[in-house]
Design a protein that fits this description.
2 domains; elongated; single chain; 5-stranded mixed sheet; Cytidine Deaminase, domain 2; 13 strands; 4 helices; binds zinc ion; about 220 residues; about 15% helix
């Protein structure tokens, strides 16, 4: 018989990423603590499936990660999915500055990060040091973050090409928790095009609306 107390790694993993059944009343102190955490993630299981509960200082994400379970579960429901920016929406003026930066960089690709300070609530832009930029390739270093600072949004341009996530982008985003955006056709008279997604839990999730205030764009 295996005793978890004898396996420090197994016990640590289950402690760091817990999994709780939802009681018929729909909540429990452990689930409430998971939802209220400043940072961390875990899973809850209800009659309507398995849900990932992920928290960052800037993000609350509740997202189903399974279909409803066919077996009868005498549990409550995990409830609706939710994605909420705890940091609030990003000031729209920062998006305009990013797009100006991308236009100045033409014909090359360029990049920008939106960073949020949890102590002050302030958003700032970081234009990273570029090691190599061409119209189809960009090598840059992510910003060094002070304690309490978080990358909310990782944005890059595809210059005059289309907006899509390349295999390189997918590899870069696989382990991150952030909003990822690509802009293309930067100086197109009809306006730039974009693709955006929320990277979390090893998944790429659609963004139902722009994270920038005053930006009416919807996928
Ligand atoms: Zn790209």
């Amino acid at each position: 018989m295996i005793d978890l107390a004898d396996d420090a790694t197994a016990a640590a993993i289950l402690g760091a990423v817990p999994c709780y059944p939802v009681p018929p009343i729909g909540k429990s102190p452990a689930i409430d603590a998971l939802r209220a955490a400043k940072a961390g993630h875990g899973f809850i299981i209800g009659q309507d499936g398995v849900m990932l509960i992920l928290r960052r200082p800037w993000l609350e994400l509740d997202v189903p990660v399974s279909s409803p379970i066919a077996a009868h579960l005498p549990y409550g429901r995990v409830g609706p999915s939710n994605a909420n920016l705890r940091c609030g929406r990003i000031p729209g003026g920062l998006l305009r500055r990013v797009l100006e930066h991308f236009e100045e960089a033409l014909p090359n690709e360029a990049a920008a990060f939106v960073i949020w300070d949890e102590a002050t609530g302030a958003f700032v832009l970081d234009f990273p040091t570029i090691d190599e930029a061409t119209p189809s390739r960009l090598v840059y270093r992510p910003p060094a973050l002070a304690a309490g600072s978080h990358v909310i949004c990782d944005i890059h341009s595809h210059g005059r090409s289309g907006a899509f996530f390349s295999p390189t982008d997918n590899a870069d985003d696989a382990h991150a928790t952030k909003i990822s955006m690509v802009f293309g056709r930067i100086d197109d008279p009809g306006g730039a095009v974009r693709a955006s997604r929320l990277c979390a839990g090893g998944m790429f999730l659609p963004m139902p609306r722009s994270p920038f205030s005053g930006d009416q764009y919807a996928e």
